[in-house]
Every structure is written in structure tokens, then in C-alpha cells.
Amino acid sequence: MVTTVKFAVIKVVQIVDTFSIWCKQKLSLSIKPAGFCLFAIALSLTFLTNACKPWPNQAIKPLRVGITSWVGFDIALYAEPSGIFKQRGIEVELIRFENQQDASRAVMRGALDAAFVSLWDVMQVDPGNATPLVLMTTNISAGADGIVAKPKIKSVADLRDKKVGAKLGTVNHLILLEALKAHQIKPSEVQVLDYSNDVSAQKIESGEIDAAVLWQPMLGEIANKINGNTIYTTKQVDSLVIDILISNESILEAKKAQIKQFMLAWFDVMDAVKTQPNKVFDTVGKKLGQSGESVARDYAGLKPGDMSLNRRMFGADGRLNSAKTEIVQLLHSDPRHGRMIREDVKIDGTLVNEVMAGWKS
Q1: How many CB atoms neighbour CB 294 within 10 A?
Q2: pLDDT tens for each residue of 220-239
Q3: Residue 67: which of 111, 109, 98 has the closest Cα?
Q4: 122 domain-assigned
Q5: Could you tell me if 132 and 262 lie in one domain?
Q6: What angle do CA 293, 301, 202 make, to 5 degrees?
């Protein structure tokens, strides 16, 4: 496409120059070819306009967006069956990943156009030629994540010298570090067992560990099974468990129009969550093989990524910039994760502010 347009521009310049010389020669002979010259220039401009249009076989490819299983991301599934993507003139392929860091890597390598990930995860993605670019906030945890403990453990303060299941380097690790910081406990004072969400749930149920960092609905389910205590949730703080949409600058430059329409579609979904929540939750539930009620319960533990939230996050003194600084501090406070910290993550509200200004329901 770019090569075609470049070639067209060169040819038009050549044509216009040729006709310009021809016109001057004819004018010097007192001939009046003005109409023909204007016709030639108009013909050249028509050639350029048509050259800039995609050829019939140059169909726009679907926007490829990475997504992991998380209610804050899965809410986007409503956009396809509801016709929102179609109304916005885009085709979107949502590609499932097991973890957010793999999705982040795919964006950095150009295998994806964008991805739903957490700010925490993208700040640990492998270094490369591309720089992570934060486009939008999709949700913030506000009770959807937390720590469940054995019955004898009543508070986060009781975790000193205890065994806690949390996968190092993941969002579960962040949740634990956030809780410890809020209660002035050093990470080194807690034994962190490098377990995934599912394994942590199994280990605390069998009594092998004292506490586990989990997300809903597993958090509440395990607490009931072991008659334990939910000693912490992200509702207790202005959480750093912030989920975002990322891309990189080269992809954004090439596919800005499509990405912009995708972001508009996201705000359409957020509007639908506000105005017709049952329809949204039922639709998403069917896509996930769950009930609409279970989706609604899980989503209730989040601050939705609507315009109000995004204005707060991307403002002049926006929360994203301070959150980035706090995440760096937490990563340095517990190097057991063994990850490289990406402090070059770019937070730019230009596009999301443009999208919000132009959004209409």
C-alpha cells in the first residue's frame, strides 16, 4: 500500500511537470491551452486519488488482540455478538493466551496488534526493539483479588514467617506485596511459595500452606471450603492491579484507524454494561460457558474501564504514572521474581483522549 502510493505520487509529479513545461511552451506561442492543462492536472489528481485506494485483493486484515481468561477482559466478548465491532467497521480476532506476559511478548514482537494485560506484567516483559505503549485502562481490581488464610490467621499482620502461595512475578505476587506494604511488613518476613493460582488453592485446602493469593470466584470458594478468613482484598487500597490495553508505536502508526475503532468499541461495551448489564453478562456468560449471574458477581469486584476511570488514569497527574513508580518500588523490594524491570513503558493519553472526545453511544 505504501509503495503503491509512493509510486503514484512520483508519477503524478512527473506528469504535472511534463504538462507544466508543455503549457508554458504553448503559451509562449500565444496558443490558449489552459483548458487542456487544467484537464491534465485534474486527470493526474484522479490518478493519485485512485492509487491511494486499496486494490480489491488488499482486504484489511482483522485486528489481532491478545486476551487471557479474566472477567475484566472477557467483558469484551460482548462486542462481537452484539454487533458492536461491525457497527464500528472492524473485524477483530481475540487470541487466547495462558498468561499475560506471553501476550505482551507477542505484541512487542509484532505477532499481535494489541493485548489486554496488566500494567504489572507489561513492566516485566522481555526487552526488545519495541517499547510497550499503554493505550487505555480496562479495569482496576477492587475486591476481585485477595488473600485467603487458615482459620487461625486473622489478618495480614499474622503472615510473618508463614507460608503463602503466590506465583512470583505475576499479579498474585503484586497483590501480596501490596498487602504487605499496607501493613508495614517486609517481603523477606514471609515465605513465598512459587505456586500458580490453582496449585495455591490445592495447597491451602490440603493444609500444606498457611495462606494463598487467589482471585474470584476461587477466593471465596476456598475460604468457604476451609472455613478460613479472607484477610485482604484489593478493595482495601487504591490497587496497583491495573489492567490495560497495550500496543507498540510502530503498530499504532500502521493501524491507528483500526485500533481507534477498537477503543471506541470498548467504550460501547462499557456503556452497555452501565445501561443493560444483565444482557451483557448473560451474553458473555454464554460465550464462556457460565451463567450471567456468575459473570456479574466476578465483575462486581472491579472498577470498570469507562471514560471516567480513563480520565483519572491519563490525566496530567494521572494515576498511571504514579502506579508505574510504585510498581517499580515493589519489584525492587522483593527480587525473588528474578525478572528484569521495564521502566521504559510509555504512558500516552493522546489517543484515548481523542477517542473519548469523539465517542457517541
Answers
A1: 15
A2: 999 999 999 999 999 999 99
A3: 98
A4: yes
A5: yes
A6: 85
